[in-house]
Amino acid sequence: MPVTFTFGEMLSARSVIGSTLAELGETHENLWVLTPDIGATLVEFRDKYPDRFVDVGLAEQACVGIAAGLAYDGNIPVVSGMLPFLSMRALEQVRTDVCYPDLPVKIIGTHGGLVGNGGSTHYAVEDLSLMCSLTNMTVTSIGDPVMVGEIIRQSMHMTGPIYIRLAVGKKDKVLYEEGQHEIRIGKGIVARDGSDVTLFTHGTTVAQALEAAEQLAQDGVSVRVVDMFTLKPIDAELIERCAAETGGRFVVLEDHLSYGGLATRVADVVADRGIRLESFERLGIPQVYAGFGEDEQLRDKHGYGLSATVAALRRAVAPATRAAADEPAAV
Amino acid sequence: MTGATLDIGERHSVGELTDLAYELRRKLLELCGTYEGAVHIGGDLSVADILTVLFHHGLRVDPDDIANPARDRFVLSKGHAAVCMYIAMAMRGFFSYDEIVDTYGQLDSAYGMHPCKVQLPGVEASTGSLGHGLPLAVGMALSARHRGEKHRVVTLLGDGETGEGSVWEAVMAGRSQKLGNLVAFVDRNRQLMTSFAEERVMFEPYPDKWRAFGWNVIEVDGHDMAQLVDAIDRLPDPDSDVPTVVVCETVKGKGVDFMERNLAWHAGSLGADDLSRALAALDASRGTTAADVPPADTHEEAR
Fold first, then answer.
1. What is the share, in percent, of chain A residues with pLDDT greater than 90?
2. Which of residues 29-48 of A touch B (CB under 8 A)?
3. What CA–CA distance (Å, rounded) separates A128 from A232?
4. Of the candidates B193, B38, B47, which has an alpha carbon nearest to the alpha carbon of residue B105?
5. C-alpha–C-alpha distance, residues B192 and A181, integer Å
6. Domains and CATH numbers, chain B
7. A48/B155 Cα distance (integer angstroms)
């Protein structure tokens, strides 16, 4: 059953995952759903296709290995769980059992970033760095709950693996109107156009980026917001175009370590293509274990909340004051 | 059922299988004599009988139809015994033995230290890192069960490898999913790479561990072909709901006296002189089983 939604509405991305998989289970008889005990939103699929639903209990490594075994036999397995555990405890299975033979396993999960107030055991903040380093892996991070369904649908046609990162996924703002943007894996979305500076982001901070851009607009600064929801393969053409069209001024905002995630991906493109920038600033999690607190509190505390984003954008368009900006934290 | 048919080729007597295992060991030693790098010869020799009985008796496979959906699937979880599997499969008609010997370990060869399905079709899974094969086999067995296919999924693990936690995750999953079409062989050679197993890790009572997880346990002498054949012939119906482990009591380095239960021969290379010594030892050991090889003297001073 396709989900109906309204722009700006709050929607649970998890429920979109559940309903999308239940819908695809009908048309894809080789679609399996596996989980290490994180099955609450998969109930619809489980009830409709109990033979293709596997809850292994608390066993991430076996969960990913079993998914690979299913994929070897021509199935399309989706592993759904919490990303701090799927991306790290099962990292070797993801790399060796899934990526090495290039199997169409989809890894989808929640708790990407400083979200959910679980503390550092329960925040996936290194995951994109780890996943981007894996050969054959496609890496995505999604903020718009409706988009999650679209990406899962598109991934059905992929012959290799994909990683799909969400925040908590309980209550997410619908960011895009239906048909407003072409959504395609590997292509960034210009969520808001602008000409003075580009703000690259992904996942849960897209909404914050749009809000920051709106504040800058009141000062007459035109901010382009790019939802770079595919980190790998990265949309290098769009990065190059943004450099040319927004005065060579880049800010990268992400709910991930500020080194190793999207900022690093963008910086790699800049270096590899010899793109000349006026300014480049990264906003993300420094090398600390973040502690407890609500999502927004943690982003503010660690220097990549809304006000920090606004400040970074102002610095970007006023290069003379950039020297006053804090030096980046240790890499 | 898919309705696919599978020609499983000729059936061999226990005597013929014993001769095939001898031939497999000869070929292993020859490769170990010509290849300059290290070969995991100790662990290869401990699974030579198991792989012989699987590829010439137990597994329903057809080398001329490697993608036949009705085939049994075999996953070499102890991927470092790849050479032994390559040669066993070559002897069954999958690959050319000469090609293995001529190219092993060289640039762009399909035959490397650990098996890669992408580079070597006919191999069912890319393995090498230990503790990965059983979860893969569980997934394959689940898929077969779901499709109503009657083939088995068989995996071979080293006993040392079962120190990996992921093995026991999959042991639980296989039992929970009621996969009677899943069979694990364990090469219980009682040696890790640098130590005798019980010195470092208390595996015993080993078969009881599997029993405690609800598996059907068969215990055999892993170098006694009659026992291995009997174990395979006694496997429960693939439609049953309890997976089976065949715990094979083995000797690392089996068949070559100076390698047997010797920590120095986890991996190595034989020169021309050692090769002729090894082949002579192999001839002398024909017809012996694990029970014929004395236990390792594990006292430190003995080394």
1. 88
2. none
3. 9
4. B38
5. 57
6. 14-290 (3.40.50.970)
7. 32
Tokens of A291: 């502690």
A317 interfacial to chain B (CB closer than 8 Å):
no
Angle between helices B225-233 and B14-34 (to 10 degrees): 120
> Which among B100, B72, B73, B76 is positioned nearest to B86, based on CA atoms?
B100
**Cβ B172 vs Cβ A57: under 8 Å:** yes
pTM: 0.94
CB contact under 8 A, B166 and A61: yes
Average pLDDT taken over every residue of chain A? 94
Question: What ranges in chain B are assigned the alpha helix state H?
Answer: 14-34, 41-46, 48-53, 82-92, 97-103, 133-147, 165-176, 197-200, 206-212, 225-233, 272-284
- Find out whether A227 and A189 touch, Cβ atoms under 8 Å: yes
Residues 132..151 of B with a Cβ closer than 8 Å to A: which?
Answer: 132, 134-144, 146
pLDDT digits (tens, 9 = 90+) for B34-62: 998 999 999 999 999 999 999 999 999 99
Residues B177-235: tens digit of each pLDDT: 999 999 999 999 999 999 998 889 999 999 999 999 999 999 999 999 999 999 999 99
Which ipTM did the prediction report?
Answer: 0.94
Give CA separation, B33 vs A227, B27, B245, B272, B274, in Å: 59, 10, 34, 6, 8
The C-alpha R_g of chain A, in whole angstroms, comes to 19
Q: How many residues does chain A have?
A: 331
Using a CB–CB cutoff of 8 Å, tell me whether A51 touches chain B.
yes
pLDDT at B303 over 50: no
Q: Which amino acid is at A53?
A: F
Burial A127-165 (b: 16+ CB within 10 A, else e): bbbbbbebeebbbbbbbbbbbbbbbbeebeeeebbbbbb
| Residue found under tokens 């396993």 | A105
Residue B115: is its pLDDT beyond 80? Answer: yes
| Chain-chain contact of A66 with B173 (C-beta, under 8 angstroms) | yes
**DSSP conformation letters of A247-291:** TTEEEEEEEEETTTSHHHHHHHHHHHHT---SEEEEEEE-SS---
Nearest to A266 by CA among A284, A282, A290: A282
Per-residue pLDDT band at A172 (split at 50, 70, 90): confident
User: Do the Cβ atoms of A313 and A216 come closer than 8 Å?
Assistant: yes
How do strand A172-173 and strand A10-11 relate by DSSP bridges? antiparallel
Query: HSE-up of A100 (CA within 13 Å, CB side)?
Result: 20
Is B125 at the interface with chain A, CB within 8 A? yes
Confidence of residue B248 (pLDDT cuts 50, 70, 90): very high
Distance between CA atoms of A315 and B157, rounded to whole angstroms? 59
